[in-house]
Amino acid sequence: MRVVTSTGLRPTRRWLGPVVADLVCVLALAIGGKNSHEAGESDWVVLVIVWPFALAAAAVHVWLVAQGRQTSRVWPEGVLVLAVTYVLGMVLRAISGRGMAPGFLVVAALFLTVTMLGWRVVALLITRRRART
User: In the chain, where are the structural domains located?
Assistant: First the structure.
């Protein structure tokens, strides 16, 4: 199947790295949450924790790629990916009956901000350094 964006550009493999990196950030949040609060539960609980945020992250990536935007940029795409992942992920989590403890809201926001924007900043710095040499 050939996908064409609204700008007429075909998405290439360059979108795969950013979506995988963001999904790894979301998975790390879920694993950390499971290990901290539900350590005695089955490892399957990670999927229960991760799916709302993974779905949200994937959805925003699909939308941005369809618009012909680079999801690896810190601003504005990275911030949009972070915001949609957090807000939509929390909405889906609440709808599914999972807890919305204030502590979780804060920890998830901080963790996702540091990791999802963090890898983008590191990638930007590496790219700039390579361009100088």
Answer: 16-132
